[in-house]
Amino acid sequence: MLTQPLSVSFDLGEGREVFIETGKLARQADGAVTIRQGNNIILATVVASQEPREGQSFFPLSVDYQEKFSSAGRIPGSFFKREARLNDYEVLTSRLIDRALRPLFPEDYLCDVQVLISLVSSDDEVLPDALACLAASAALAVSDIPIKEIISEVRVARIDGKFVVNPSRSAVVNADVNLIIAATEKNLMMVEGESKECSEEDLIEALGIAHEAIRVQIKAQEKLRDLKGITSKRDYTKPEQDEALKAKVAEFATDKINEIARAKTAKHERSEAFKALKDALIESLGEEPEELTVKLAKNIMKICNGNWYVI
Description:
Layout: E1 6-11, E2 17-22, E3 31-37, E4 40-48, E5 61-67, H1 88-101, E6 113-121, H2 129-141, E7 152-159, E8 162-165, H3 169-172, E9 177-183, E10 188-195, H4 200-228, H5 243-261, H6 267-284, H7 291-300, E11 301-304, E12 307-310
Parallel strand pairs: 5-6
Antiparallel strand pairs: 1-2, 2-3, 3-4, 4-6, 7-8, 7-9, 9-10, 11-12
């Protein structure tokens, strides 16, 4: 049944109003929104599989940000007459969004999730990368895909000694501090940026200004979610657990992992030590442990930034 699009808005300051709308485009996606500021329009869509793939042991999240040629009134003129692959700027923007979104999903959620953010109309003075993560989070908020919290992302730049949230393209050129900050309502999630010089007090001030602006954007997303009537998230198949095995792995490996991590050894030596610990763990399970038991034990011992830990 066709319904009227739902829309909310918030003010960035200085009369810069941002509109978030859902229910008009990409209606078959699990969640879809458009973000509009001036002539800048971003479409974000999210879809997720209902069940994880058989044997899946990791969370397959795919985030792609793309600026369409048509957003600037251009038509690809190459031999193929189609959009080219993502350029470096689009890849880096995708990573900024991915880094903020990934911790929002439950640790035991292993279904495929695809987030597509497309710039469909550009504005000479509006930087779209500062709004792209807002679009992705809003699309997740109005979907039934399970996420723990709503987030947003803003750019904070210091221009002529004053911090500005999401400055214009021409103004940000003169910034001596330029930060991209993502956060939930309570916690900062990610900080990325550059500065010529920045004191600790100035950095804390910038983070505070960003967080206040993000809270306004989160409230707008919550309002849009409530207008759409999203009150609960979908159930999903959780990976098989073995509490007895988990306790056994924790007892065997936790202290050894901490000992290796604190040994102040070279990276390759630490990697070899972790590999040996994993092999010792498998041996401790018995002479011929079942394949499922070995798999569960390896899943319980996770790897992060090259270091093992027990979940």
